Automatic annotation (TrEMBL):
It comes from Cephalotrichum gorgonifer. The keyword Flavoprotein applies. This is Oxidase FUB9. Keywords: Flavoprotein, FMN, Oxidoreductase. GO terms for molecular function: FMN binding; oxidoreductase activity. Its cofactor is FMN. Residues 209-224 have a biased composition (Basic and acidic residues). Belongs to the FMN-dependent alpha-hydroxy acid dehydrogenase family. InterPro entries: Aldolase_TIM, Alpha-hydoxy_acid_DH_FMN, FMN-dep_DH, FMN_HAD, FMN_hydac_DH_AS.
Length: 391
């Protein structure tokens, strides 16, 4: 067997995954909605900002540690792993590899409700890896979920997450219907028959293999299940801001809203009691031609004014991308596709390697910009490419 190539950047992991993953799997995870304008804009947005470096500062000691939870331990740098469904399609260990890597590295893992490993097993693996390495970090888990029309399905997930020690509920709010993803349609994407949605019993109607395509798992474009109009895990398109009050009535866990893209909705989220805001456009997989997340971040952060943490994802490939996002107001940056490419390369060890690369890049960026702590980062350290020169 040929040895694997040495990889030195997230782009290297992407190239490796593109060459080795089956086309249907690669297109599923890398694809966007419709023309993928938002998908590509997410990454291109970082190129629209330059970094303004300061010099002749003592940068011999640089502190990149931060906290995700006020009462939690520190994580090594402000980057965590975002939820992504069905990770066993990428690597046999799937979410187990991701959990072990996050636990060992000391960063927070976001677990998708539609994982191919149960939320209980994922938490146990993250805890075990954290204990084995003894690394001073959080290594905690948060659960991403939807509110289904059958509320008992969602309530069961929350109860199980509480029992296992998950630290927050990440409610995805940008999916009243699922975006039209042409790569999945053209490939006639189907979940491999040997996999299942591990957080749902078969009696709920979540099936895998040739009987259901991805669209069937979540309902068709009108919100109905293609196989069963009463499918209990169908997303609820009637949700309103009252959903936050409902969740707070049934759990003490913090509620983060994932999919906030406007100042108006950010302010409503705070007004209705959200404990965190996740600036995200679903990786360009929902509403195509929505703006890139980096473009709206600063306005949202300025409006929220530190009343709740600002989580952020979308197109992150470099440590300098993390630096720019923090300068524009993000509290924590999350990576999605890069983590999948990394486990495709070498499971747990691949993701630990990718996190180390991003941390090294981020630390170097801070030092070269003249910064020694995260508290120093602000909009004065970046400038738009087309900004007029100051005279």
């Amino acid at each position: 067997m040929a040895s694997k190539p040495e990889l030195y950047s997230v782009d290297d992991f992407e190239s490796y995954a593109a060459e080795t993953l089956p086309k249907m799997v690669r297109d599923y995870f890398n694809g966007g909605a419709l023309d993928s304008i938002t998908l590509h804009a997410n990454q291109e947005a970082y190129r629209r900002f330059y970094i303004r470096p300061r010099v002749l500062r003592d940068v011999s000691t640089i502190d990149t540690k931060t906290r995700v939870f006020p009462d939690g331990n520190t994580i090594p740098f402000p980057c965590c792993v975002a939820p992504a469904a069905m990770q066993r399609m990428v690597h046999p260990d799937g979410e187990v590899a991701t959990a072990r890597a996050c636990g060992a590295y000391g960063v927070v893992l976001g677990l998708s409700s539609f994982s191919t490993t149960s939320l209980e097993d994922v938490k146990r693996e993250a805890d075990r890896a954290r204990e084995q390495t003894g690394r001073d970090g959080e290594g905690e888990c948060v659960l991403q979920m939807y509110l289904f029309e059958n509320r008992s399905t969602s309530e069961d997930l929350i109860r199980r997450a509480e029992e296992m020690g998950y630290k927050a509920i990440v409610l995805t709010v940008d999916t009243p219907y699922f975006g039209r993803r042409l790569t999945e349609i053209r490939n006639r994407f189907k979940v491999p028959p040997h996999l299942k949605m591990a957080n749902f019993p078969d009696t709920l109607g979540v099936k895998t293999g040739s009987e259901h395509r991805t669209n069937d798992l979540h309902g068709d474009r009108e919100g109905r299940s293609a196989q069963n109009p009463a499918l209990p895990n169908k997303n609820d398109p009637t949700l309103t801001w009252d959903s936050i009050r409902y969740l707070k009535a049934i759990t003490k866990l913090p509620i983060w809203l994932k999919g906030i893209m406007t100042v108006e909705d950010a302010l409503l989220a705070v007004q209705h009691g959200a404990d965190g805001i996740f600036v995200s456009n679903h990786g360009g997989r929902q509403l195509d031609q929505a703006p890139p997340t980096l473009r709206v971040l600063h306005d949202i952060a300025k409006a929220v004014d530190r009343r709740v943490p600002i989580h952020f994802d979308g197109g992150v490939r470099r440590g300098s991308d993390i630096f720019k996002a923090l300068c524009l107001g993000a509290s924590i940056v999350w990576i999605g596709r890069p983590a999948l490419w990394a486990i495709a390369y070498d499971g747990e060890h691949g993701l630990r390697n990718a996190l180390k690369i991003l941390e090294d890049e981020f630390r170097a960026c801070m030092g070269l910009a003249g910064c020694t702590s995260l508290e120093q980062l602000g909009p004065e350290y970046v400038m738009e490419v087309d900004a007029p020169a100051k005279l």
